[in-house]
Amino acid sequence: MRIDMVSEHASPLAALGGADAGGQNVQVAELATGLARRGHDVVVHTRRDSPTLPARVRTGEGFTVHHVTAGPAEPIPKDDLLPHVDAFAAQLAETWAGAPPDLVHAHFWMSGLAAQLGAARLDVPVVQTFHALGRVKRREQGAKDTSPPQRVELEAQIACGADRVIATCTDEVGELAEMGVPPERTAILPCGIDLDRFLPAAPRRPRSGPARVLSIGRLVERKGVDVMIRAMRDIPDAQLLIAGGPPESEWADDPEVNRLQAVARQAGVAERTAFLGQVPHDEAPDLYRSVDVVASVPWYEPFGTVPLEAMACGVPVVVSAVGGHLDTVVDRRTGLHVPPHDPAALARAVRELLEGPGLRAELGTAGAHRVRSRYGWDRLVAEAEDIYHQVRSARAERAAVAAAPGGEAP
Ligand code: UDP
Predict the structure, then answer these.
(1) Left, alpha or beta for 165 (phi > 0: left; psi -120 to 50: alpha)?
(2) Is the beta carbon of 215 within 6 A of some atom in ligand 1?
(3) Where in the numbering of this chain does the Glycosyl transferase family domain appear (predicted)?
(4) Which residues of the chain are modeled with pLDDT < 70?
(5) Can you name the CATH fold of 2-192+377-403?
(6) CA torsion sign, 366 to 225 to 107 to 172?
(7) CATH 3.40.50.2000 segments of the chain
(8) Residue 148, Cβ neighbours under 10 Å: how many?
(9) Which of 6, 117, 305, 365 makes a 20 to 30 Å CA pair with 103?
(10) ipTM of this predicted complex?
């Protein structure tokens, strides 16, 4: 198949850990790589955010990245991109008019909007993955939600206009149902993990020095990094490593880094808290393997790649019992659940792991097994391919019914 992905703000070529570059970038890159490996012709359309980028880049992984000119060729926060969606969609329409793909898979709501507008005159199925839903963000972040006000309403329209909506977890299927998407038009496809790179150290050597707890991800408030910093008050002698955010040269001007550093000072744990800045994704496996526990306690989480990466490396995790974590981390079998926003419960869970080498090893082993058996890309790419085939057959059936004598337009 010729499969075109649309990932307007999240380029598969971007460095990770910045405010708008995280799991979606990894997932799009891995899905594109896996599909290309299975012989599909894959193009990822993403917004040009620098004038020096070539129009098309053929990656070493066998897929093509198309840099679409829509708005100024400079980084723009994703919440300010809506005014440029029409220009993006027009470019897609022009590209697809001559050579339409067999299927389009859009990632994030604005990509869905652009994809459906771009494919409007073509008989091309459009599959949608939201990665995050505006209604959840609005509920959890309230006035701090910087999404465009139209997002929630547009997402419902995008969901209803797509041939299939792919949720990343069970919790999202419930949200989609409340948005009016019938269950027969949803499918679940979790995000996957690169099992060749994220794997346990063998053997895992005991380390000397203080115990190390890792928080890794984009430094945005809803990720709950401040909760982990506050929890450190009740985890004596341990060190907290915080990976993500801008490089050190930009910390002075970064409000979130400043806020978190102030939280660490107020909690009296600044000297046990190390900010590492953005860690190259290639170095993430070694970082995971160098710590005793990984904590990921966002307020809400559409999927959550970080706990799976940690589990794949055999490192026990403590996660907030929200969203995708409810599917991926089995409480007390492959990790520990805590309520979000609760430093005391988080401290208790981390301490239980740090004080229990047996439990640590047990959860680490079970976690690695769970990721290997369920979240490898080979398996998930094959599942994506199945969904694409189903969607194309359903469209072909509808077209056949419509073309039959007495048939109705679908
Ligand atoms: N990441 C990274 N370096 C950093 C911070 C994050 O490589 O400095 C990666 C991390 O390994 C994971 C992704 O960014 O693959 C974060 O994905 P997740 O789904 O946990 O969160 P999102 O950013 O999508 O909200």
Answers:
(1) beta
(2) no
(3) 207-368
(4) 16-21, 202-206, 407-410
(5) Rossmann fold (3.40.50)
(6) positive
(7) 2-192+377-403, 212-374
(8) 16
(9) 305
(10) 0.98
| 276 CA from centroid of ligand 1 (Å) | 14
Q: Is 17 in the pocket of ligand 1 (CB under 6 A)?
A: yes
Sequence letter at residue 167: A
Q: What is the pTM of this model?
A: 0.89
Q: Is the CB of 340 under 6 A from ligand 1?
A: no
Question: How do residues 352-383 score in pLDDT, each as one tens digit?
Answer: 999 999 999 999 999 999 999 999 999 999 99
Take atom 24 of ligand 1 and give the residue whose Cα is closest: 23
